[in-house]
Write a sequence for this structure.
């Protein structure tokens, strides 16, 4: 059976041993650093560190390859859009202009623009591995317990857990319905032309929507019969207490946050400028 995208992958690794609360806090710290800074030195460090964490997690690249390729495609479109709508953004930020070559009067390729868009790309490369790891190494039930532990209502927490659990369910249903329709003679392979494949996809989407609505009704009825939401608090089967590895990880990420903020704002400007 094919591996579901963005579903929990059970491994024996230090990343998996961390509690959901720890991983959530670390992910928020990591994302905050990446959003605040445009210092290339920090972004490169975070990118290399995220690769190391990815290796330690024992998650295989092929298990998340499709998601990474999709995000890379979006990143290419985003970089192209930045240049089309603001081709001199780097010049405005860094205050200098080193022209490599001109396309037109408005569109020129400058070192400053390339450097600015390199930083934007590094931001994606910094956050994406962390986000993917957080999703695939955290059990949805444990994640719900983590959200509830930091003060979020358990009703909202449980809704998030159900949404995460439903991602692989949708993928399994899509594959099953697709195989059933192909057995009936509806070709979804690359042998068919693209317009025909899009038209045939409707024969999968409609049953998929109907089966999803049916599952939603079953789950809501089951929760209602069990009195879900009656009490203000609840216990969690997957909740885990903090361990030594959690404390050390939080201290490490707090240290990275403080150092990153200092390096970013020590000169009063969050943009690292190598052109001065």
């Amino acid at each position: 059976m094919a591996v579901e995208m963005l579903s929990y992958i059970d491994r024996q690794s230090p990343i998996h041993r961390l509690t959901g609360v720890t991983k959530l806090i670390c992910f928020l710290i990591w994302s905050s650093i990446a959003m605040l800074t445009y210092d290339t030195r920090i972004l490169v460090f975070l990118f290399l560190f995220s690769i190391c964490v990815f290796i330690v997690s024992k998650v295989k690249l092929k298990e998340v390859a499709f998601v990474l390729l999709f995000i890379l495609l979006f990143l290419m479109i985003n970089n192209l859009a930045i240049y089309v709508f603001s081709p001199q953004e780097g010049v405005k930020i860094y205050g200098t202009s080193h022209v490599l070559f001109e396309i037109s009067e408005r569109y020129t390729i400058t070192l400053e623009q390339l450097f600015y868009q390199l930083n934007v790309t590094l931001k994606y490369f910094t956050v994406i591995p962390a986000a993917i790891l957080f999703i695939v190494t955290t059990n949805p039930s444990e994640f719900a317990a983590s959200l509830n532990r930091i003060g979020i209502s358990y009703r909202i927490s449980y809704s998030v857990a159900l949404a995460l659990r439903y991602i692989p369910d949708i993928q399994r249903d899509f594959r099953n319905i697709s195989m059933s329709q192909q057995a009936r003679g509806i070709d979804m392979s690359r042998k068919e032309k693209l317009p025909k494949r899009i038209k045939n996809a409707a024969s999968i989407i409609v049953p998929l929507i109907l089966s999803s609505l049916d599952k939603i009704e079953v789950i809501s009825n089951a929760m209602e019969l069990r009195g879900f939401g009656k009490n203000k608090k609840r216990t969690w089967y997957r909740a885990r207490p903090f361990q030594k590895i959690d404390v050390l990880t939080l201290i490490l990420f707090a240290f990275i946050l403080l150092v990153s903020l200092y390096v970013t704002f020590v000169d009063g400007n969050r943009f690292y400028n190598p052109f001065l």
Remarks:
- The chain has ten helices and two strands.
- The first strand starts at residue 99 and ends at 102.
- The first helix runs from residue 14 to 17.
